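Morning, I've got a small favour to ask if you have a moment. It would help a lot if you went through both lines with me. Thanks so much in advance, here it is.

***
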Amino acid sequence: MRRIWNARFSPLLAGGTLRDRMVACLGALVGVLLAALTYREVSPFPTPLLAAPIGASAVLVFAVPASPLAQPWSVVGGNAISLVVGIAVIALLPQEPLAAAPAIALAILAMSLTGCLHPPGGAVALSTVLAAPALTAPDLAAFAAPILINSVLLVALGWAFHRYSGHSYPHRPVPVKWREAPPAPPAGIVMADVDQALADLGETFDVAREDLVLLLARAEAHAARRLGAPAPVAPQPLARA
């Protein structure tokens, strides 16, 4: 039964623990509550049209703060750029059903080119396309304000919150403070090795290259300690190739 449970219901995110999930729940509770209060104060609309994307952003900021998709520029830039893309698309293609697909596709392209890919940005672009035809120009400004303000507030809260959670945010490739790590020198792996391995696999992973180097270094150190061998020593310093 335990094997079936682990196979079917274990977390898919590597490294996630119950403590991490509880910390994420607390952060998201505070972040989304602040977003709701902000929306009530700055938006004239009774229905929080752009609340869903902020909820998705909160999951990334508090549950996976090491993800490149959760970094400050990804959250603020991704949501803002997707908002602009949605407005531009609906101006050129006023029929919402037809505008939805190009809005999301162009939002992905714009976020990728500007280095701020953020999954909730797709929801921002879609929400903008669906809501914009019913709004006047002044309404559109009031519609856009909550997503921009809440994106900034969410990043600020994430920065303050993770000062106490033990995780770095904005993320830096360093071990989590409250987890014990073996005092070993870095592994003999450089960025060029990681880049070549990623090219061999042909996949895109939601983890920074620097974190991959740190992970592999720690894995080698643990393997060396388990086997009773000296920890591997890097033949050259870890640096970008």
Observations:
- Residues 234-241 have pLDDT under 50 and may be disordered.
